[in-house]
């Protein structure tokens, strides 16, 4: 073929020009008989196959046994290798690879996770530390074997469904016959394609108790429990389903006034990540700490050293607000059921598990019954065969068939009481009985064996008839055998919301340029106002009577002639602003007291009547509602006679910010002077203690502690014999072991009965708090010393209940504590109460006591801010204010 023929374009040829029978293909290898498959369809099918594989075979646990496939294969391999001794984890991993079509790394990691949960695997060696995040040693250095619990609840080969392994060489369990809610006990987490699962772990004993309640048709509740302990708020748990959320906090205590100690950490964190988050918050200025020490070993101990003057309570709240000391966990219950993913709550998971456990127990009992009946059947046949000498009938038989028939005929007169027909297999077994056994056959022992089997059969039948009771007994036995040491570790508590603005460290400074009208943290050459943080709000008042709330910024223009700037707290109802302003350029002057709350950020609010030329003549900011006395000096206008008079803000009603106020005078004011600083005109603040969140509040939640003035304090006494008097700040944290929390009355004595560990005697003491600014211990510091009871009644009465000694019970003794001992010093040992061993000490009804008149006298004060109409204000002939 020449060059011209080689370059023929087939599309350019007409049908006539093309050679007969010739065909042109764009690809020489293309075959017209092949079907065309679109690549998009192939990818769709492959993706679905891959997604299904990941969901079913890797990431999501099965509802039946709570295992992912790799976990199930590990437990199966451990059972096959089990001989009571430890096996190298590397050997277990290698054995598991016979069933698992993936690498040894995934098997080893999964096995370490199971071992760290300390339930199914008895470990030996360095398996890592869930508290610190340290990894396990190499698999060749660590060993494992099945725990006794796993051997009891995981395996039952006779009722296990078997399937072929991935290569068809071996059989593996489709699901293990787990007779326990293992999925809920261990938890599970996995990310598949298009879905994920996160089942939180729950308490071993609580799961058993809940399973028993299900069997008894009683209501139950399940809440998570974590190995890392900590404190959890499960109010939004939502039964572990999508949309739920669990807040988890570290347990933080106060070692001393400059040291905090973290003893428990939140779930899903470790000490390394926790410390990193604290250091980052410190670098960003959210908190202020001196240094951190990590002393964690078997238990968590992280010491946080604070700078002098830094509030421990605010630092604790800041740690929760800005670090990993508080985390939020979103549960998502997803399991594999009937080869499909199903979203389900933990309550339904437990119901399914409990129902499955009952069915597994039933299957085991049925198999056991069949085996017992078979044993009874053959034992009865054996007795008939030997006792009636049927074996002699085969002596003259020459064929095997004749032997079988002879035995069959010989048995017929004696088998009417048997529970099933005699088969050829039964007769074959009889022929296998040895002569030695026949010669030593004991009829009495044979009968005892038969009767024992009958007793076991009746017992198994009873269990089958009362299957629920049998299942309850099974769960109860599990709790008795394995429940010790598995008590709840995570404390459940409702958390109080922490306002970041109240606990954030104010690590920068706020400045103001009053004339130009700028505020900000970058105006370092201008007037310093206060310390602030980058998330604070600022309240600004201008001379023209406008007010604005805005965020802290580097530099922001508000308006010229700024008269007041401060950090704004929207929940502060006790800060009162006192103001006198002129309405318009030459209008009358008004006086008002108001509180600011419920405003829109960056919106200007006019505190005057809104007339052009209005001006603030006097302004004061009072954090606790103080009311001063001011002197008004008027300009000489016309025939005005009284140019000077005083006004007491205490006589002014506290109204809203938009109120007009009360008329001061219609004449021009020359000057306003402060004559006398005032005291708070607000009623004492009522404070409650909410034991569900262990916090103080002013919202009426919990127990009312009393009405508090600025100088009032709270008395706190703990079970360890420590006492302190504190300012009632709402950010204060309280230890759960406190026994007294009440308003402190300085002259009220405290009575305590305690055991002195050094002297081995019981003492009683009465004392007054001497050092209110320091936490002190009022019992002896011997490690065996302990506080029995404490009272803040004026005239307490105690009842001593003595322990029985050598069968002798001493009568209870009632002690009038006031008559027994006088009030002494704080450090006094007290008077010996008894040397006998006490069973307990009870406080009885105290004796009557009348408070001195000065202690119960009431002080009449102006109530909290309210809007009072202006009708009660009258104006005299001079055009000046007259109150009431």
UniProtKB/TrEMBL annotation:
Highest taxon of the lineage: Bacteria
Protein name: DNA gyrase/topoisomerase IV subunit A
Domain annotation Topo IIA-type catalytic: ranges: 60-503
Annotated coiled-coil segments of the chain: 355-382, 436-463
SMART domains for this protein: TOP4c
Acidic residues: compositionally biased ranges: 867-884
Keyword DNA-binding in annotation: yes
Gene3D superfamilies listed in its UniProt record: 3.30.1360.40, Topoisomerase II, domain 5 (3.90.199.10), Topoisomerase, domain 3 (1.10.268.10)
Entry's Gene Ontology molecular function annotations: ATP binding; DNA binding; DNA topoisomerase type II (double strand cut, ATP-hydrolyzing) activity
Catalytic residues as annotated in Swiss-Prot or TrEMBL: 141 (o-(5'-phospho-dna)-tyrosine intermediate)
Family label: Belongs to the type II topoisomerase GyrA/ParC subunit family.
